[in-house]
Specification:
Elements lengths: L1 H27 L1 H22 L11 H15 L1 H17 L2 H7 L3 H34 L9 H29 L2 H19 L8 H9 L10 H25 L3
Helix pairs in contact: 1-6, 2-3, 2-4, 2-6, 3-6, 4-6, 4-7, 4-8, 6-7, 6-10, 7-8, 7-9, 7-10, 9-10
């Protein structure tokens, strides 16, 4: 019993150390902060632009519609979180540091689990900050008081958007690991988000992750939208559809 307990504690400590090492690598990457900083700044700029478009200087028919303006900028700047995921997983392949990582953490499953655990809280924290900044900037630009909005709906929107951004960061990290090259992975994601997805918005294809997510973090939900639980299952399915194969393939590669 003592041996089993010690072994379990050793494995747990090894995983915690691996997660800590992955987080240290992630936050030491200049590209991480360039992407997050750029995403924040562009979100502020777009939010000011969308804030000036609020009807009657903030006199929309309801607080819900005003909150929709508040998160519109994030529909574009979500690209930054996709890039963050790609950078997190593919940056080590650029300079060959991946060999050092695999020597330090030879268990590939533990490596990927630790890397995902390190990435998720960073993406979630950044997501909350970016979405809050988007909503707040829009309200300030439109000169709308916090008392004029539904606080419960605002909290639901901010948290839902942040969790969505976190899941998509994990998804893009898995894609980056599968391709092992940052530019092709980033190009694929940006092509979808910037060109294909906008063309599909009118189709109500809620099986696509971004379109499903809009039913979770917009106040005005289309009548044809599925229940929230279905939208969350769609997002989770897409994330696992990339994450699990990336782990399996990682166990079968040399690097």
């Amino acid at each position: 019993m003592t041996t089993t307990h010690d072994a379990s504690r050793t494995r747990g400590r090894a995983f915690a150390l691996a997660a800590g090492a992955e987080l240290s690598k992630l936050i030491s990457l200049p590209a991480t902060w360039l992407v997050l900083g750029g995403t924040f700044v562009i979100t502020i700029v777009l939010s000011i632009a969308f804030g000036t478009s609020v009807p009657n200087g903030g006199g929309g028919p309801s607080g819900a519609n005003i909150l929709d303006y508040g998160v519109t900028a994030v529909t574009w700047t979500q690209c930054g979180f996709f890039l963050l995921g790609v950078i997190a997983s593919s940056s080590e392949y650029i300079g060959g540091q991946i060999r050092t990582t695999l020597i330090a953490i030879p268990d590939r499953v533990r490596w990927r689990a630790a890397a995902t655990l390190a990435l998720a809280p960073l993406a979630l924290s950044a997501g909350i900050i970016v979405v809050l900044a988007s909503v707040t900037t829009t309200l300030l630009t439109a000169r709308i008081s916090m008392t004029d909005i539904d606080i419960g709906t605002a909290v639901r929107i901010v948290l839902s958007a942040a969790v969505y951004l976190t899941l998509m960061t994990v998804l893009s990290s898995a894609l980056g690991l599968l391709i092992r090259r940052a530019i092709p992975a980033a190009a694929m994601l940006l092509l979808y988000l910037m060109i294909i997805s906008p063309l599909l918005q009118s189709q109500n294809w809620y099986f696509l992750p971004d379109i499903a997510s809009y039913t979770l973090w917009f106040a005005s939900i289309p009548s044809t939208a599925p229940p929230a639980v279905v939208s969350w299952l769609v997002l989770l399915a897409w994330t696992l559809a990339f994450l699990l194969p990336s782990i399996i393939i990682a166990t079968r590669r040399d690097t």
